Amino acid sequence: MKHLPLTAALLGAAPFAPLPALAQDDTLNVAAQYEIKGPEASTSGFVFTRMGLTETLVNADPDGRLTPGLATDWSSSEDGLNWTFTLREDVTFHDGTAMDAAAVVNALEIARAKPGPLNGLPITGITAAEGAVEITLSEPMAALPAYLAEFRAQILAPASYAEDGSGVAIIGTGPYMVTSMDAPLSLDATAFDAYWGTAAHIPNVAYSGVSRVETRALMAESGDADFVFGLDPASVARLGMVDGVEVLSTAIPRTLLIKVNAGHPFLSDPRARRALSQAIDREGIAKAVLRYPEGADQLFPPSLAGWHDDAAAPLTYDVDAARATLADLGWTPGPDGILTRDGERFALTLTTYPDRPELPLVASVLEQQFRVLGVDVTINSTNSSAIPAGHQDGSLDLALIARNFSLIPDPIGTVRSDYVGNGDWGAMNWNNEAFATLVAHIARDGGAPADKAKAAAILQDELPVIPIAWYRQTLAVSNAVEGAIIDPFERSFGLQDLRWAE
Amino acid sequence: MKALTSRLVQAVVVAVLIGTATFVMMRSLPGDAAWRIAAGRYGYDNVDAAAAEAVRSELGLDGPALPALLQWLGDLLTLDFGTSLVSGQPVMHEIAHQLGASAALAGIALLLSVLIGPPLGILAGLRPGGVLDRCLLVVSTGLKAVPQFLLALILIVLLAVQLRLLPAAGHGEARHFILPSLTLALGLAAVNARIARDAMARIADMPFWRFAEWKGLSRREVLMRHGLRNVSVPLLTYLGLQFVTLVEGVVVIEAIFGWPGIGHALVHAIFSRDVPMVQGTALVLGLGFVLVNTCIDLIVRRIDPRGETEARA
Amino acid sequence: MSTAELYTQPARLPVARSLGASLVILVAAVALIGPLLIPGDPLAQSLLKALSGPEATAPLGYDHLGRSVFHRLCAALMLSPLIALAAVLTAGAAGLILGTLSAAMGGWVDTVLTTLADALLALPGLLLVLIVLAMVPGTATGFWIGLSLVLWVEFYRLTRAATREVLVSPSVEAARLLGFRAPYIFRTHVWPEIAPLMLTTAAFGIATAIMAIAALGFVHVGMRAPTPELGLMMVELLPYWREAPLALLSPAIATFALLLGLTLLAGSRET
Q: SS3 of A413, please?
């Protein structure tokens, strides 16, 4: 009987639907999960760089090699304390002003005063020189150019900032310029005529922040968005069957891992952490939940050359061995199947956050797999800040997180902050002298592949974090568009290289 | 006049209740607000102790409670909702921006429901017990038992996924209105139709109606002259009450369809502990309800000066 | 969470009510007896069976993590109705006590309570539940508190109105003169008046509460995974609609049946 009001409703709705479902105009519609907090590079800068509105001094190619951006060249002094970045000539901001050394210094100084990776660098001064910017350091830092490729180091025109340095507008140098911005959910941009590089082919682009992954997938399916970023595993499978949409997937330097409180009495012994690791069916999780071809058998994904070591002994799935190890550590099964030692149950809380839809899913799988081992895990899916907050006050047991090793294109940035500097998203209550020395050395002068492999081997053995899977980034593109690729370093959508299919 | 005064008292109590509740929330939410705000601002990849510290010192979150509450309520009286902790924009500005999107959605939903429900209800009410009346009873009972999110799910699966007639999400174009407003409208229409039907049936049973028919006026004329006016009173009263359903629907429906309105903003503000935003949106929704009902009281009085009917909310 | 309805419709056929009751009983029976007939764990996973079809031990097939949809559904059908029942009982008791108090004492007690109730009525219920959930996230307790706060107003208004009417009736006047105490008057005169209304309101309140829990689960702000909850199950299974339609349809149909049953049972008063 239901069709009666439904039909009536559709008839009633007809005047509001003058357009066919697959409208085609000259605007490329982009949908991704990110919301725009405002015209502020320190909070939403990644949306602006991805949309091609703003640029950084240094870029990175898909292999992570640094390439010229707004700086054509850079070099450091003998002692590694003075860096010179030669600026590209004849570059103008979207407001017509010139991108000169003074503007770059202004942008970098403002970025450095806000929370972010630049903030933690040993920078003593940033000065303008003739067609160049000079940065002086108090200690050598080989990865400095990589830090300048990070989105918060984007170069905006002086008019983009208020007196106090807060953002008021996005006036960049990119191939697209903002025409209107409606925080938090939408942004329109048009091609910038005076762009210094190859001009964009598609004249207009529009960004929509759509936080629900199901909704994004439906937008891709209905043709409502041409370029949909970040899909869940189920939608990838479904969209693969849909005509008119192509799904791309690329390995990215991001790892799904369990952050472990190595100071917790149950987990302080590396053997206990190895036992937990052996209880994880990585292949099952990868295939059934994430729909990836493989799980992670070490922390660093294959794309991170040097850090990933093919020769490393892989992490394995062996519940019996894990049980034996825990028995050696004095754990015996209680009446409910949960292990006990000295009257204490092996019960832990696994904290995770729903911002990435796969995390709660994997958490519920882990809960079951740890239960088989006799470990009682309670899932706490909450705000992402609970993890660094729990790290700081020491209350965290386990956390399931997706950690990006390319916040700056060189993994040393993340490794240094997470595993040496008591970083909030890395090792917790875990310190290793040999590892710290190796990393300090690599940070100073770049380091040889052997050093990186040695550092990675220490993490593999000690397991301050337990790797589970290497991420893939996914993208659904309409067949009306050609030339889409995924940037593994998640810096750009590559919109300026897209064109409408003939 | 008395009704207006009581509405005013209601509005003030609502404001104080929401103000205090959100203030207590600011102070008592589990965990540290600075962390949550930092996560909201910087995202999960970049929230860390330094970011939280920056937020804490910027917002001065550690002051004493009572002066802060008084300051808070004082600001409310001057309609100063403060600035969003996440975006740094004035809350008023954000709400004004989002209210338009929500109001457009709610307005179209209401319009659709009025176009669907009452005409069917009046037709059914003219012949109580007829085929249309029975069908309408079954359908409206069924629809009332379907929660809005389930209706949204059904419409998405049917119209967007299976038949691919309509976009499931997005905003900015006319066609984006259809699914979310239809979802809201069908639930409302089910109730509208019943009310119109009952009112019509009652009126059609009254002596003046039969007299008018006996006078030889055509059915259409009788309906226009006597029917619609009398049916509209209960309908209007009910529409005021439905504003609640609409507002609640808007919260859920906006979240499902990615509609950039006030409901979406509210859910997000709660996530990232943007208490001034929670307070602002809650106040606007609550006071909006009082305002709409006051207007409807007045309209109903105009249509039906005997004043027998009075909205109850 | 709509509010009281002014224009009562003519009482619906008792047929509708018995139909509603049978639907509710049917759903409850499945939820209670189902797991006894076919034992299974709503949380146990078998990743290899993810999204596969029905079999003897899992009559409704498996979800995306290889958990039996049937057993999750049974668990979910226990969870929300129990929360709803608890909230309605609390709200009913609070509404009854405060309503009687208000009517019996009048004066400022009545004014304060009525003003408070009116103000709460002006707040969309879902908003109130959301604010409470922000303080007590993802737990049954949060829902219980939030829903009780929303639902008591209705019980309060009904009790207050009915009690006021009864208290001025000649029979109560007589009872008072005869020296009967308040509890007796309440039991013999007030309660019989309001009992049928209260039961209708309770059925409607339970339906409202179940809808709210499911709706918030559906937008990911209600109960948390892996707890089996109706709204959460539906939103989790929505992406797999093409691959496993039965897995999505089962919770959708069960929710509809339960709510339809309660709506019919509540009868004509609500809308």
A: helix
